[in-house]
């Protein structure tokens, strides 16, 4: 049986405007982000989505609420869909933080987690998803760690190969999770 997953990143945040790596800080959508979240809802409402799963961080929950809050589609928050925890580096300039990403592939950020730990955390969510949502089409709203976990687990793209490339935003990714 297959679970169809549509992945979208959270909408543009105030921290994105400032060039900050929010990490596990809640963040908040900017005016641009709220408009993009509304566009996400318009784009996906007729797409057969049976449930929306979102990171529990504010910027992601805001995205889900704006896009699907009035539709009756259940919105389920899951902490395992959070971004990598940069620990003491949460909120630092993104350019500075990401110049050392490879260092933190397996070594946790001070007071945080490694990229591999973050991807494994999202993997736990993916392991649980088919138990209730097999044969359905769901939307997942998350972060870079979520995207990397999906690509590694479903498409077989090793995290080691993803971490060195810049993350390129787009309007959704489609995955088929086989059980």
TrEMBL record:
<dbReference type="GO" id="GO:0006096">
    <property type="term" value="P:glycolytic process"/>
</dbReference>
<dbReference type="GO" id="GO:0004619">
    <property type="term" value="F:phosphoglycerate mutase activity"/>
</dbReference>
<keyword id="KW-0324">Glycolysis</keyword>
<feature type="active site" description="Proton donor/acceptor">
    <location>
        <position position="83"/>
    </location>
</feature>
<feature type="binding site">
    <location>
        <begin position="22"/>
        <end position="23"/>
    </location>
    <ligand>
        <name>substrate</name>
    </ligand>
</feature>
<keyword id="KW-0413">Isomerase</keyword>
<dbReference type="InterPro" id="IPR029033">
    <property type="entry name" value="His_PPase_superfam"/>
</dbReference>
<dbReference type="InterPro" id="IPR013078">
    <property type="entry name" value="His_Pase_superF_clade-1"/>
</dbReference>
<protein>
    <recommendedName>
        <fullName>phosphoglycerate mutase (2,3-diphosphoglycerate-dependent)</fullName>
        <ecNumber>5.4.2.11</ecNumber>
    </recommendedName>
</protein>
<feature type="active site" description="Tele-phosphohistidine intermediate">
    <location>
        <position position="10"/>
    </location>
</feature>
<dbReference type="InterPro" id="IPR005952">
    <property type="entry name" value="Phosphogly_mut1"/>
</dbReference>
<feature type="binding site">
    <location>
        <begin position="83"/>
        <end position="86"/>
    </location>
    <ligand>
        <name>substrate</name>
    </ligand>
</feature>
<dbReference type="Pfam" id="PF00300">
    <property type="entry name" value="His_Phos_1"/>
</dbReference>
<comment type="similarity">
    <text>Belongs to the phosphoglycerate mutase family. BPG-dependent PGAM subfamily.</text>
</comment>
<feature type="binding site">
    <location>
        <position position="59"/>
    </location>
    <ligand>
        <name>substrate</name>
    </ligand>
</feature>
């Amino acid at each position: 049986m297959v679970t169809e997953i549509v992945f979208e990143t959270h909408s543009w945040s105030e921290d994105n405007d400032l060039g900050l790596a929010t990490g596990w800080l809640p963040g908040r959508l900017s005016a641009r982000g709220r408009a993009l979240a509304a566009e996400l809802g318009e784009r996906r409402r007729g797409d057969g989505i049976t449930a929306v799963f979102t990171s529990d961080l504010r910027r992601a929950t805001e995205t889900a609420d704006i896009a699907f809050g009035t539709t009756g589609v259940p919105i389920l928050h899951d902490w395992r869909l959070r971004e990598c925890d940069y620990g003491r580096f949460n909120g630092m300039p993104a350019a500075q933080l990401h110049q050392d990403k490879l260092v933190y592939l397996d070594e946790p950020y001070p007071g945080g987690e490694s990229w591999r730990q973050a991807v494994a955390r999202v993997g736990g969510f993916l392991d649980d998803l088919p138990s209730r949502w097999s044969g359905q089409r769901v939307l997942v709203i998350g972060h870079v760690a979520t995207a990397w976990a999906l690509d590694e687990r479903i498409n077989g793209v090793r995290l080691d190969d993803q971490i060195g490339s810049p993350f390129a935003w787009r309007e959704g990714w489609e995955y088929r999770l086989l059980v």
